Amino acid sequence: MVLLNLFLHMIDEMLPKKARRIIGTILLSIGIIVSIIGVVMVLLVLQEGGDTSGLGGVGVLLAWFVLGLGIIISIFASTFFMKNLTETFDDILAEEDSESA
After folding, report:
1. What is the tens place of the pLDDT at every residue in 21-65?
2. Containing domain of residue 80, as a range?
3. 86 near 9, Cβ under 8 Å?
4. Has residue 70 been placed in a domain?
């Protein structure tokens, strides 16, 4: 959590708002495309009743990995659209600290 907080502070300080929005849009687009590819791969594997790619279980794992990667990229891209990037994340950390105490 501390590394993520430092990373978000660096992004907030280094990039202007317009650049963050552009990067966020690009990352979100990539995440959506990768997620669609992952969904298609998973559906193809499930539709045929098994992995017929000749890779055995690795093909199934690869399909789920691609789907998960797309979701992670999309979630990461959403951080670029926050209005006050560091303040919002600091509030989340403060709430977690108060709940754990």
Report:
1. 888 888 888 888 988 888 888 787 777 665 555 666 677 788 788
2. 2-7+27-93
3. yes
4. yes
- Give the C-alpha separation, 61 to 45, whole Å: 10
In a domain? residue 98: no
Average pLDDT over residues 85-91: 59
Three-state SS for the chain is CHHHHHHHHHHHHHCCHHHHHHHHHHHHHHHHHHHHHHHHHHHHHHHCCCCCCCCCHHHHHHHHHHHHHHHHHHHHHHHHHCCCHHHHHHHHHHHHHHHHC
Domain count along the chain? 1
In a domain, 15, yes or no: no
Q: For residues 95 and 54, what is the distance between their CA atoms, to the nearest angstrom? A: 49
In a domain, 17, yes or no: no
